[in-house]
Amino acid sequence: MLNDAPPAHQQIPLISGRVKGPLGIGHLPRLWLKLRLHSLGKLPEGYRCGDGGSDAEIIRALGVDPAALLSYVGAESPDYVTLEAWLRTNAATVSSPELTDLTAAFETFLMPEPRRTEWTARFGLPDYQVATRLNELDDWDLVHAQIVAPGAPSTPIVPAISTSVTGPLGIAHLPRLWLKMLLHAHGRLPADYRYGLGGFDEYVRDAIGLEYAALAAFIADEKPGYLAFEAWVRANATNLTPEAIAASNAHVVGFEPPEERAAVRRAEYGVDASVKTGTALNDLDDWLALHRQLLASA
Predict the structure, then answer these.
(1) What is the SS3 assignment for 29?
(2) What helix, strand, coil percent values describe the chain, rounded to 5?
(3) Is there a contact between 238 and 275 (Cβ–Cβ < 8 Å)?
(4) Which residues contact 12 (CB under 8 A, 6 or more apart)?
(5) What's the rounded Cα separation, in Å, for the pair 43 and 45?
(6) Is the pLDDT of residue 110 over 90?
(7) Is the pTM of this model over 0.90?
(8) Does residue 93 contact residue 112 with C-beta atoms inside 8 Å?
(9) Exposure b/e, 15-34, CB count within 10 A at least 16 = b
């Protein structure tokens, strides 16, 4: 992909290949979103959709017919949890050593050449070579270009970067915080999403020593891409020690909300009590919001 803004009607699949749903299969939520977008003509040119790369690896490991999967998604427009239920019935397996190994590999697999050299040079990060991480930076470049493009529409964008995802600084939730504040500054953050105050936003800011007013002013004035935002964080955060980052990451990724609240949310999403963390629940919330948004736009 290039970092030119795709047409406004197209949508960047912001779910990382590193992120898992309740089945615990990496890349599956991203595959679901790409299939949904493709079925509606909203997937930007250059993104795979079930053919080749990680898409094909996951489909093969599941033992599901690719044509049947594409046909099901196109005809039924399932939400993510419903897709997982369909796979439980129609895939050869949803739990195998191969799927476990593939899921682990999404954290370490290096982007193939020549794209690896091209993209590490593009981002100025010679040692940042894992394919999923470079794809994340590409997604974030593209959504940034869409948001700041002259004449960009005011339609809301679901900030579907998981709290579990880190950028080059290694700070969980920081990419999500950047996107939410950027969307808010442009009037495109959906209602009920925080943008810098409260919740994980405030916790991470406090943990690394970022002052809200300065952060909000920088985002509003500069409209930075993600790497420019990280550069500003490096210069302005007062507590970027490895210990502070590790403690913040452990808290936000492992935090479990009170069970009475979690149970209400699980019932809405249609998942069982194995889904406990705030991060996993927020992912499902994003994916349900994406599903509803896509249904409304069909």
Answers:
(1) helix
(2) 55, 0, 40
(3) no
(4) 6, 44, 139, 142, 143, 146
(5) 7
(6) yes
(7) yes
(8) no
(9) bbbbbbbbbebbbbbbbbbb
